[in-house]
Design the sequence.
């Protein structure tokens, strides 16, 4: 199977459905590019197997945490000074791939490692992503290693469903990390 096969019509999906999936993926990639290039301090993306893996880095930020059904608490960062976001999309159509296990390690220029740490799924009003607030040594140049383990959900479609089955790893080098809290 080629690395990035185009999805094809089948008894499960027709051309209109494929076109709509592509439009959804195009919109997701546009939102990812906007987050990585315009909103965050820095970002980037790479293709790896069935995926495109993207990242964005910004200051640590507060988030709502569900405490009990219907009851949320806003939680500010403690010592965390870096927010790392990772997007995992289908390389063929660009749509977000949920339920992956995403592990990240940041390594500073002097070799100090933060992680490996699992990045949980985060809801964001503009872009579903995996992410977490982290405590890093400070501003500087880092290497960010990201490992994406395959999701365990079932896949429809005998023609198009045999994807997302391999763990992939990507490395983003010379990443300018700016720390702080938002």
Sequence:
């Amino acid at each position: 199977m080629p690395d990035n096969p185009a999805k094809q019509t089948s008894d499960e999906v027709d051309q209109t459905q494929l076109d709509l999936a592509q439009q959804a993926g195009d919109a997701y990639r546009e939102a990812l590019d906007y987050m990585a290039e315009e909103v965050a301090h820095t970002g980037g993306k790479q293709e790896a197997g069935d995926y495109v893996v993207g990242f964005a880095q910004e200051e640590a930020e507060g988030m709502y945490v569900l405490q009990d059904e219907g009851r949320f608490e806003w939680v500010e960062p403690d010592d965390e000074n870096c927010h790392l976001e990772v997007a995992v999309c289908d390389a063929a159509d660009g749509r977000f791939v949920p339920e992956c296990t995403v592990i990240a390690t940041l390594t500073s220029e002097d070799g100090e490692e933060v992680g490996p740490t699992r990045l949980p799924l985060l809801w964001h009003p503009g872009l579903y992503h995996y992410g977490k607030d982290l405590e890093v040594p400070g501003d500087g140049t880092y290497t960010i290693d990201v490992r994406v383990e395959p999701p365990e959900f079932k896949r429809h479609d005998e023609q198009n469903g045999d994807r997302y089955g391999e763990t992939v790893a990507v490395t983003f080098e010379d990443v300018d990390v700016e720390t702080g809290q938002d």
Remarks:
- The chain has one domain: 15-177.
- The longest helix spans residues 15-39.
- The chain has a mean pLDDT of 93.
